[in-house]
């Protein structure tokens, strides 16, 4: 069912967005800390595409699944996206822009979920 | 998921308390900009400096900010010739605090800006929570 996939994807993105909000809060809070470098999350797409489990091919007879034709496997939890430190000092403006981006994306995410929820409900009611 | 929002709030509130401590210290310096000693040759008020450090919070895994303590400014005191002053040394010079009011004022202002930014982050996090709750109302 497509709606299930949509809910699943939306949940993943929302947890990624919340993780990003946390990183932004950390940057803003440490803006005056000497030696602190700004952090950010790996982009959501990269996190989503990263393979969580791959069977090891220990013998030449093993079939290695080619990743490209099948839909990319999804990593288990998007909020564990890798945090990297940019090596730059914190710029308050950039952080505010990032927080705005998170907020907008989250609003879009929740309204998509709402719309699909309405559709599922309508289908159930008949 | 809830962890991240909780971490956002704890990071932002740690910054709020660190910044308010900074503003308090700057205000203290500002208020004592003319506090001299009261015996001949005594040292006046010494400017305090606050430093911040980033500390990993074990519970949430976030980098909280902490005002790590007050240090005294080691720059020399201002000297002014006021022979009648109770704190004047034998040459008639009085040691005045090593406080520059302009520096303190701009420090207070910078603290206010940072405080504002953190409040903004908290507001935004609350908005995210509200949006999530609104899902239930659909």
Summarize the structure.
Chain A is mainly alpha-helical. Chain A is built from 3 helices and 2 strands. In chain A, helix 1 runs antiparallel to helix 3.
Protein model, in words:
The complex is a heterodimer of chains A (126) and B (138). Chain A is mainly alpha-helical. Chain A has helices at 2-29, 44-49, 92-125; strands at 39-41, 83-85. Chain A has one domain. Chain A has 3 helices and 2 strands, in the order αβαβα. Chain A is flat. The relative contact order of chain A is 0.20. The model of chain A is unreliable at 67-78 (pLDDT under 50). Chain B is of the alpha+beta class and 138 residues long. Helices cover 49% and strands 20% of the residues of chain B. Chain B has helices spanning 2-31, 101-137, and strands at residues 48-56, 63-72, 78-81, 93-96. The longest helix of chain B is centred in the C-terminal third of the chain and has 37 residues, at 101-137. The model of chain B has no long low-confidence stretch (mean pLDDT 89). The interface between A and B is large, with 35 and 39 residues.
């Amino acid at each position: 069912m497509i709606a299930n996939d949509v809910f699943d994807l939306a949940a993943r993105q929302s947890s990624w967005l919340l993780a990003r909000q946390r990183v932004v809060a950390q940057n803003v809070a440490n803006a005056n800390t000497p030696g602190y470098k700004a952090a950010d999350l790996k982009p959501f797409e990269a996190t989503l595409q990263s393979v969580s489990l791959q069977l090891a091919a220990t013998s030449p007879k093993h079939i290695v699944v080619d990743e490209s034709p099948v839909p990319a496997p999804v990593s288990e939890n998007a909020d564990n996206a890798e945090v990297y430190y940019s090596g730059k000092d914190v710029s308050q403006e950039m952080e505010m822009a990032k927080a705005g981006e998170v907020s907008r994306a989250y609003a879009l995410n929740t309204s998509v979920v709402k719309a699909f929820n309405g559709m599922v409900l309508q289908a159930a009611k008949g | 998921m809830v962890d991240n929002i909780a971490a956002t709030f704890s990071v932002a509130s740690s910054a709020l308390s660190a910044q308010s401590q900074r503003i308090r210290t700057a205000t203290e310096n500002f208020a004592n900009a003319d506090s001299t000693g009261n015996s001949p040759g005594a040292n006046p008020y010494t400017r305090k400096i606050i430093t911040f450090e980033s500390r990993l919070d074990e519970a949430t895994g976030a980098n909280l900010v902490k005002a790590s303590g007050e240090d005294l400014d080691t720059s020399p005191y201002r000297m002014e010739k006021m022979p009648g002053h109770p704190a004047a040394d034998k040459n008639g010079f009085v040691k005045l605090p090593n406080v520059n009011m302009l520096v303190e004022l701009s420090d207070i202002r910078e603290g206010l800006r940072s405080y504002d930014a953190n409040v903004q982050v908290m507001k935004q996090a609350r908005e995210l929570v509200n949006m999530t709750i609104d899902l239930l109302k659909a």
